[in-house]
Design a protein that fits this description.
This protein has one domain (9-15, 34-257): Alpha-Beta Barrel (TIM Barrel). 39% of the residues lie in helices and 17% in strands. The chain contains 9 helices and 8 strands. Strand 6, helix 6 (165-173) and strand 7 form a beta-alpha-beta unit. It binds nickel (II) ion. Nickel (II) ion (NI) binds next to loops.
Length: 261
Protein backbone atom coordinates (compact mmCIF):
# COMPACT_ATOMS: atom_id res chain seq x y z
CA UNK A 1 0.00 0.00 0.00
CA UNK A 2 1.29 3.46 -0.89
CA UNK A 3 0.91 6.16 1.74
CA UNK A 4 -1.05 9.15 0.39
CA UNK A 5 1.65 11.58 1.52
CA UNK A 6 5.30 11.65 2.51
CA UNK A 7 5.81 11.63 6.30
CA UNK A 8 6.86 14.99 7.70
CA UNK A 9 8.57 15.95 10.91
CA UNK A 10 6.29 16.55 13.88
CA UNK A 11 7.92 19.15 16.16
CA UNK A 12 6.25 18.66 19.53
CA UNK A 13 7.81 21.50 21.53
CA UNK A 14 8.93 24.95 20.36
CA UNK A 15 8.79 28.53 21.63
CA UNK A 16 8.48 30.69 18.51
CA UNK A 17 6.95 33.48 20.58
CA UNK A 18 10.44 33.98 22.08
CA UNK A 19 12.10 37.33 21.41
CA UNK A 20 14.99 35.43 19.86
CA UNK A 21 12.79 34.97 16.77
CA UNK A 22 11.74 38.62 16.45
CA UNK A 23 14.02 39.22 13.46
CA UNK A 24 12.94 36.34 11.25
CA UNK A 25 9.91 34.61 12.84
CA UNK A 26 7.59 34.94 9.87
CA UNK A 27 10.15 33.91 7.26
CA UNK A 28 11.31 30.97 9.37
CA UNK A 29 7.82 29.64 10.13
CA UNK A 30 6.67 30.05 6.53
CA UNK A 31 9.68 28.03 5.32
CA UNK A 32 9.04 25.02 7.57
CA UNK A 33 6.69 22.92 5.36
CA UNK A 34 9.01 23.08 2.33
CA UNK A 35 11.86 21.96 4.58
CA UNK A 36 9.97 18.91 5.79
CA UNK A 37 8.56 20.21 9.07
CA UNK A 38 4.87 19.38 8.83
CA UNK A 39 3.50 20.24 12.27
CA UNK A 40 4.73 22.44 15.12
CA UNK A 41 3.36 22.58 18.66
CA UNK A 42 4.28 25.97 20.06
CA UNK A 43 4.28 25.64 23.82
CA UNK A 44 3.24 28.28 26.30
CA UNK A 45 5.48 29.12 29.24
CA UNK A 46 5.04 32.61 30.71
CA UNK A 47 2.08 34.98 31.05
CA UNK A 48 2.65 36.77 27.71
CA UNK A 49 2.73 33.44 25.91
CA UNK A 50 -0.83 32.67 27.03
CA UNK A 51 -2.05 35.03 24.28
CA UNK A 52 0.95 34.89 21.91
CA UNK A 53 0.86 31.14 21.26
CA UNK A 54 -2.83 31.33 20.32
CA UNK A 55 -2.13 34.18 17.87
CA UNK A 56 0.70 32.25 16.22
CA UNK A 57 -1.50 29.18 15.83
CA UNK A 58 -4.19 31.30 14.19
CA UNK A 59 -1.66 32.79 11.76
CA UNK A 60 0.10 29.65 10.48
CA UNK A 61 -1.78 26.54 9.31
CA UNK A 62 0.97 24.13 10.45
CA UNK A 63 1.38 25.69 13.92
CA UNK A 64 -0.69 24.56 16.92
CA UNK A 65 -0.61 25.84 20.48
CA UNK A 66 -0.28 24.58 24.03
CA UNK A 67 -1.43 27.00 26.71
CA UNK A 68 -0.04 26.81 30.23
CA UNK A 69 2.29 28.33 32.80
CA UNK A 70 5.80 26.94 33.29
CA UNK A 71 6.71 26.23 36.96
CA UNK A 72 9.26 29.10 36.91
CA UNK A 73 6.44 31.50 35.97
CA UNK A 74 3.49 30.38 38.12
CA UNK A 75 4.13 33.26 40.55
CA UNK A 76 2.41 35.44 37.92
CA UNK A 77 -0.84 33.46 38.23
CA UNK A 78 -3.92 34.33 40.28
CA UNK A 79 -7.56 33.21 40.07
CA UNK A 80 -8.57 35.84 37.56
CA UNK A 81 -5.63 35.08 35.30
CA UNK A 82 -6.29 31.36 35.64
CA UNK A 83 -9.80 31.88 34.27
CA UNK A 84 -8.33 33.76 31.30
CA UNK A 85 -5.83 30.95 30.75
CA UNK A 86 -8.74 28.52 30.75
CA UNK A 87 -10.58 30.56 28.12
CA UNK A 88 -7.44 30.55 25.94
CA UNK A 89 -7.25 26.75 26.24
CA UNK A 90 -10.67 26.59 24.56
CA UNK A 91 -9.58 28.56 21.49
CA UNK A 92 -9.26 26.89 18.10
CA UNK A 93 -6.00 25.00 17.47
CA UNK A 94 -5.07 24.86 21.15
CA UNK A 95 -4.25 21.17 21.49
CA UNK A 96 -2.69 20.83 24.97
CA UNK A 97 -2.18 22.33 28.41
CA UNK A 98 1.51 23.09 28.77
CA UNK A 99 4.14 23.42 29.64
CA UNK A 100 3.35 22.74 33.27
CA UNK A 101 5.18 20.93 36.04
CA UNK A 102 7.90 21.33 38.64
CA UNK A 103 11.35 22.92 38.39
CA UNK A 104 13.56 22.54 41.47
CA UNK A 105 16.68 23.47 39.50
CA UNK A 106 15.85 27.16 39.13
CA UNK A 107 13.53 27.05 42.15
CA UNK A 108 11.93 30.40 41.19
CA UNK A 109 8.85 29.67 43.27
CA UNK A 110 8.38 27.70 46.48
CA UNK A 111 7.61 24.02 45.99
CA UNK A 112 4.15 24.56 47.50
CA UNK A 113 3.28 27.27 44.99
CA UNK A 114 4.61 25.18 42.10
CA UNK A 115 2.61 22.16 43.24
CA UNK A 116 -0.58 24.19 43.69
CA UNK A 117 -0.61 25.52 40.12
CA UNK A 118 0.65 22.24 38.67
CA UNK A 119 -2.33 20.51 40.26
CA UNK A 120 -4.76 23.17 39.03
CA UNK A 121 -3.44 22.92 35.47
CA UNK A 122 -3.62 19.11 35.51
CA UNK A 123 -7.23 19.39 36.65
CA UNK A 124 -7.87 21.90 33.87
CA UNK A 125 -6.53 19.43 31.29
CA UNK A 126 -8.85 16.79 32.65
CA UNK A 127 -11.84 19.14 32.59
CA UNK A 128 -11.17 20.20 28.98
CA UNK A 129 -10.07 16.72 27.87
CA UNK A 130 -6.70 17.99 26.60
CA UNK A 131 -3.29 16.27 26.78
CA UNK A 132 -0.57 17.77 28.99
CA UNK A 133 3.01 18.82 28.24
CA UNK A 134 5.05 18.25 31.39
CA UNK A 135 8.24 20.11 32.33
CA UNK A 136 10.17 18.50 35.17
CA UNK A 137 13.71 19.39 36.20
CA UNK A 138 15.50 18.11 39.31
CA UNK A 139 12.08 17.12 40.64
CA UNK A 140 11.79 13.46 39.60
CA UNK A 141 10.20 12.03 42.74
CA UNK A 142 7.66 14.82 43.34
CA UNK A 143 6.63 14.93 39.68
CA UNK A 144 6.01 11.20 39.53
CA UNK A 145 4.06 11.33 42.78
CA UNK A 146 1.88 14.18 41.51
CA UNK A 147 1.32 12.53 38.14
CA UNK A 148 0.18 9.38 39.94
CA UNK A 149 -2.17 11.35 42.14
CA UNK A 150 -3.55 14.03 39.79
CA UNK A 151 -2.51 12.84 36.34
CA UNK A 152 -4.11 9.43 36.36
CA UNK A 153 -5.90 8.71 33.09
CA UNK A 154 -4.56 11.86 31.44
CA UNK A 155 -2.51 11.62 28.25
CA UNK A 156 0.54 13.69 27.47
CA UNK A 157 4.29 13.98 27.11
CA UNK A 158 7.13 14.34 29.57
CA UNK A 159 9.05 16.90 27.56
CA UNK A 160 12.85 17.23 27.44
CA UNK A 161 13.11 14.03 29.43
CA UNK A 162 16.16 14.11 31.73
CA UNK A 163 15.62 11.22 34.14
CA UNK A 164 16.55 7.52 34.22
CA UNK A 165 15.32 4.82 31.88
CA UNK A 166 13.49 3.18 34.82
CA UNK A 167 11.56 6.43 35.30
CA UNK A 168 10.86 6.66 31.55
CA UNK A 169 9.47 3.13 31.54
CA UNK A 170 7.26 4.04 34.51
CA UNK A 171 5.73 6.95 32.54
CA UNK A 172 5.34 4.75 29.45
CA UNK A 173 3.47 2.24 31.60
CA UNK A 174 1.19 5.06 32.77
CA UNK A 175 0.42 5.84 29.12
CA UNK A 176 2.61 8.91 28.64
CA UNK A 177 4.97 9.81 25.81
CA UNK A 178 8.61 10.88 26.18
CA UNK A 179 9.91 14.04 24.46
CA UNK A 180 13.43 13.69 23.05
CA UNK A 181 15.39 16.72 21.85
CA UNK A 182 18.87 17.99 21.06
CA UNK A 183 20.42 16.63 24.25
CA UNK A 184 20.33 13.11 22.75
CA UNK A 185 22.97 14.21 20.22
CA UNK A 186 25.43 15.29 22.91
CA UNK A 187 28.39 12.93 23.41
CA UNK A 188 27.90 12.86 27.19
CA UNK A 189 24.16 12.18 27.14
CA UNK A 190 24.50 8.50 28.08
CA UNK A 191 21.37 8.53 30.24
CA UNK A 192 19.06 9.87 27.54
CA UNK A 193 20.52 7.50 24.94
CA UNK A 194 19.67 4.63 27.30
CA UNK A 195 16.13 5.97 27.65
CA UNK A 196 15.69 6.02 23.87
CA UNK A 197 16.99 2.44 23.60
CA UNK A 198 14.66 1.25 26.38
CA UNK A 199 11.30 2.76 25.37
CA UNK A 200 9.21 1.88 22.28
CA UNK A 201 9.44 4.23 19.28
CA UNK A 202 5.63 4.46 19.51
CA UNK A 203 6.07 6.56 22.67
CA UNK A 204 8.75 8.98 21.45
CA UNK A 205 8.04 12.53 20.30
CA UNK A 206 10.63 14.70 18.53
CA UNK A 207 11.15 18.16 19.97
CA UNK A 208 13.59 21.06 20.02
CA UNK A 209 12.51 23.35 22.89
CA UNK A 210 13.86 26.04 20.55
CA UNK A 211 15.34 28.63 20.82
CA UNK A 212 17.07 26.56 23.53
CA UNK A 213 19.05 23.28 23.46
CA UNK A 214 20.37 23.15 19.89
CA UNK A 215 21.72 19.73 18.90
CA UNK A 216 25.31 18.96 17.95
CA UNK A 217 26.84 20.50 15.75
CA UNK A 218 24.94 23.70 16.62
CA UNK A 219 25.23 23.42 20.41
CA UNK A 220 25.06 26.86 22.06
CA UNK A 221 23.51 28.53 19.01
CA UNK A 222 19.88 29.51 18.54
CA UNK A 223 17.89 26.36 17.93
CA UNK A 224 14.99 25.88 15.50
CA UNK A 225 12.82 23.04 14.23
CA UNK A 226 15.07 22.87 11.14
CA UNK A 227 17.63 21.00 13.29
CA UNK A 228 15.26 18.15 14.19
CA UNK A 229 16.79 15.86 11.50
CA UNK A 230 19.94 15.62 13.68
CA UNK A 231 17.80 14.36 16.56
CA UNK A 232 15.84 11.91 14.40
CA UNK A 233 19.10 10.60 12.93
CA UNK A 234 20.52 9.88 16.40
CA UNK A 235 17.32 8.12 17.48
CA UNK A 236 17.41 6.01 14.30
CA UNK A 237 21.00 4.96 15.10
CA UNK A 238 20.15 4.11 18.70
CA UNK A 239 17.09 2.07 17.79
CA UNK A 240 18.54 0.43 14.68
CA UNK A 241 15.78 1.68 12.38
CA UNK A 242 15.82 4.05 9.41
CA UNK A 243 15.57 7.81 9.65
CA UNK A 244 12.35 7.64 7.63
CA UNK A 245 10.80 5.22 10.13
CA UNK A 246 11.60 7.58 13.01
CA UNK A 247 10.02 10.54 11.19
CA UNK A 248 6.93 8.56 10.15
CA UNK A 249 6.31 6.93 13.53
CA UNK A 250 6.87 10.05 15.62
CA UNK A 251 4.58 12.03 13.30
CA UNK A 252 1.88 9.44 13.83
CA UNK A 253 2.51 9.54 17.61
CA UNK A 254 2.17 13.32 17.70
CA UNK A 255 -0.97 13.44 15.59
CA UNK A 256 -2.64 10.79 17.74
CA UNK A 257 -1.65 12.37 21.05
CA UNK A 258 -2.66 15.92 20.13
CA UNK A 259 -5.64 14.81 18.03
CA UNK A 260 -4.45 16.52 14.84
CA UNK A 261 -5.81 15.25 11.48
NI1 LIG B 1 9.90 24.47 26.70
Amino acid sequence: MKPDRKPMIFESHAHYDSQQFNEDRDELLMSMPEKGIGTIINSGADWDSVTEVVELAQKYPHVYAAVGMHPDEVGDLNEERFQFLKSQCQKEKVVAVGEIGLDYYWDNESHDVQKKWFTRQLELARELDLPVIIHSRDAAADTLEMMKEYGKGLRGVIHCFSYSKEMALEYVKMGFHIGVGGVVTFKNSKKLKEVVEAIPLERILLETDCPYLAPTPFRGKRNSSLYIPYIAEEIANLKGVTYEEVVAQTEQNGKMLFNIQ
